[in-house]
Give the backbone structure.
Amino acid sequence: MAYPLSHAMSAFIDKTLSFTSPDDSLAGSRQAYSRMCRAFTPPRPSTLAVEDLQLAGVAVRAYHLRTSPPLAGWPCILYLHGGGWVVGDLDSHDFICMELAAALGVLVVAVDYRLAPEHPFPAGFEDCLTVWRHLGDLPFAINPRRRAVVGDSAGGNLAAAVCLALRDAGQPLPRSQVLIYPALGGPEHLPSRTECFDAPLLSRSDLQRYDAWYLRGTQPSAYAAPLLADDFSGLPATLVAVAQWDPLRDDGVLYNARMSAAGVASELYNGEGLVHGCLRARGQVPEVDQLYRRLLAYLADTL
């Protein structure tokens, strides 16, 4: 179907789709995704220090301003990248991790979690949870009371799952979680699945393929599909940002409603005119810049 998108958004989509794989292989898809990501990644600001590390056996990348940490330690954001649990790495989301660190003056820790289908659920989830639990082992002074977890798409799924697992284990929770067009395991009958079945950059068939690779025939649990949780109480303050033209839109809408009903301070950002994967259009599409303003303001308030 035709989607009423702005000229700027349409141009962004065309550029994104120009990075095609030479074949249908997973390796080819990953290479094309990496080329696309590099094309949208700005140079690193000279004001930022960026360091690759190992934390509890998981590769991470840390970003912070080249200044002394605050007396109480760095506020810290754990960033979990999107890519359908199948593509993406520490380079693919450099663009937003740099922005968060520079704009907010915080330490951002990005996680290079294991990918499906080679490593299906729960591998990636376990990597993210492990990194959160070991943030205090990093060679940085971190303020334990000022930490947040942020993720987009599959990373939004992982962020929500980490918060559920921490709450269930009675362990310290982040101050807030930010879920950007998250994949939360919503049922197939959600309206957005039909309304946006062939949406640009993520179709319903794409979603089904990624789900199959991630789950690999296992029975989904709340840590794989957070909308399956029986209890949504006790979770941290949450911002759920959804894209209007995205088959996953109603996953986020429903998750926000269930958390709000359970007494969680949850806010929904309805991204009018947005499509899945549009975070890379920073500085190119006014609707995306508006999304960033909300994300940055929310994190500044909650951290």
Observations:
- The beta strands are 48-55, 58-65, 74-80, 107-111, 142-152, 176-180, 237-245, 266-275.
- The CA atoms of residues 11 and 285 lie 9 Å apart.
- The radius of gyration is 18 Å.
- The first helix runs from residue 7 to 17.
